[in-house]
Each structure stands twice: as C-alpha cells, then as structure tokens.
C-alpha cells in the first residue's frame, strides 16, 4: 500500500496531492491547539486559587495582581486580574467584570477545534472521488487496448484507483483521534475555569447585607398576619360560644314558661 501511495505522489495524482495539502493543514491545527492547551491555557488551577485565597484574605491585592500577571496573561489568571483591578476601584462591578471576561475567554478554547472533523469528512470524500475517477480512467483505457494487455492494465488501474481512498482514510482516522484527544483537554480546561470563576465570585464579590432586609420584612409581615388572624378568630369563637349559651338558656326558659301556663290552666 505504501509503495502504491508513493507511486501516486510520484505520478502527481491530483487527488492524493490535494489530500496531502489538507492533511498538512489539519496537522498544523492539531499541534497549534495542543500547544495552546498544554502551555498557554493550562495552569495548576488548585494551587493558583489557593494562593489567591491567601492573598485576598490578607488584603494584599497588589501582590495578588502581581501573582496573576506572573502566572499567565490568559485563562483564569487574566479573569482574576481584571476582577482584582475592579475590586480596588468599583467593588460593585466585580461580578459583571468576571462574567464578561469569562464569556470573552471561553470561545478561545474551542477556536479552530471544530475544523478537524470538517477536514476529516472532506478528505475522505476527496479520496472516494479520486477512486471513482481513477476507475473510470482504467475502464476507458481498457477499451482501446489489445486483449492481451487488458487484464494487466485493468488490474493496475484498479490498484492505483484505491490510493486516494487509502490516503483519505489514514488522515481521517488520525484527525478523528486527534479531535477527541483535544476535546478532552478543552473540556477539562472549561470545567476548571467554571470552578475557578465560581470561587472568584464567592471570594471577591462583596456580600450585600441589605439583600436580607426584604426577606426579613416579608417573614415578619407573614408572622404578624398569622397572629392577627388568630386574634380575630378568637373573638368569633367566644361570640359563638356566648350565642350557644344564650340559645340554651332561652330554650330552658321557654320550656319552664310553658309548663307554668299548663299548671295554671
């Protein structure tokens, strides 16, 4: 197979050359993303957040900002740096700055990562098209040859026609495996970034004590309403009991008057 592929390159098969060019582009994208994930976006998130916690607890914001600059100019350190700078000037806008920087950073992780599956499909389709074209040429060349040369020419044409498909499958398998490999790195960085952003919000966003006032007022009003409801119900129950006693006494008096009248008669 490898000899046939080399022979196709030597004969300047347009389909194989086109697949090689696209394979070279895909290889560049793979290594560029791998370098970004391993050397630029990836940091020791646990250690970084632990140091930020200590510095913020000690109220040493200048040191925390210098630490963020020394770790990285992107990823979670950049988000932390913007949040710390905003904390010094406008503490009420820290949450908004963190969310804005996070939304701006996360698309950088997936950038050009979806190109690899697209290249895989295109390369495999080009290989299939090259095979079909080569088969057509082989069958058409058989018609103008002598009977003795037809079998050998047809066999050679079919063998060379499979080269574009073979090259396309090789690059397709490599790019699919590379895409899943890079996707695992990307998902890990995204998850750790979300966790780090949550820690930053809990650490740097000032807690508003006035936020509890409406809740406390609502609870107090509900309790007072329940007390008033019980108090309003009690007189009604007492009134009902008095009415029952009145009715009972009225009934007793009425019965005694009737008996007295009967005795008089």
Task: Bin the strand percentage.
Answer: under 5%
Q: Kindly report how far apart the N and C termini lie.
A: 136 Å
Helix/strand order, N-terminal first: HHHHHHHHHH
Average pLDDT, all residues: 77
Tell me which oligomeric state these chains represent.
Answer: single chain
Largest sheet: none
Structural class: mainly alpha
| Percent helix | over 70%
Number of strands: 0
Low-confidence residue ranges: 210-220, 229-240, 244-265
Shape: rod-shaped
Structure in words:
The chain is mostly helical. The chain folds into two domains: about 1-205, no CATH class; about 210-265. The chain is built from ten helices and no strands. Helix 3 packs antiparallel against helix 4 (about 60-70). The protein is rod-shaped, with a radius of gyration of 42 Å. The relative contact order is 0.11.
List keywords for this structure.
mainly alpha, 2 domains
Helix and strand topology:
Elements: H1 2-10, H2 14-41, H3 45-57, H4 61-71, H5 75-89, H6 94-110, H7 115-143, H8 147-161, H9 163-204, H10 213-264
Q: How would you concisely characterize the structure shown here?
A:
With 265 residues, this protein is mostly helical. It contains 10 helices and no strands. The protein is 87% helix and 0% strand.
């Amino acid at each position: 197979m490898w000899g046939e592929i080399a022979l196709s390159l030597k004969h300047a098969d347009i389909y194989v050359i086109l697949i090689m060019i696209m394979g070279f582009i895909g290889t560049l994208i793979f290594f560029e993303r791998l370098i970004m994930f391993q050397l630029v976006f990836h940091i020791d998130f646990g250690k970084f957040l632990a140091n930020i916690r200590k510095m913020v607890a000690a109220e040493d914001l200048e040191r925390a900002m210098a630490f963020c600059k020394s770790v990285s100019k992107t990823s979670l350190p950049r988000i932390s740096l913007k949040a710390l700078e905003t904390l010094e000037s406008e503490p009420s806008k820290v949450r908004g700055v963190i969310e804005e920087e996070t939304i701006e950073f996360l698309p950088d992780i997936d950038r050009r990562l979806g190109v690899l599956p697209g290249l895989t499909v295109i390369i495999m389709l080009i290989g299939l098209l090259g095979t079909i074209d080569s088969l057509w040429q082989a069958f058409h060349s058989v018609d103008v040859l002598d009977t003795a040369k037809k079998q050998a020419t047809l066999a050679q044409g079919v063998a060379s026609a499979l080269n574009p498909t073979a090259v396309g499958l090789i690059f397709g398998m490599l790019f699919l495996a590379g895409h899943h490999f890079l996707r695992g790195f990307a998902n890990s960085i995204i998850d750790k970034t979300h966790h780090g952003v949550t820690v930053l919000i809990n650490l740097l966003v000032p807690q508003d004590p006035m936020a509890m006032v409406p809740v406390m007022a609502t609870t107090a009003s509900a309790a007072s309403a329940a007390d008033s409801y019980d108090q309003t119900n009690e007189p009604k129950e007492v009134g009902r009991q008095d009415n029952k006693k009145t009715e009972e006494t009225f009934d007793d008096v009425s019965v005694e008057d009737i008996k007295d009248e009967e005795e008089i008669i």
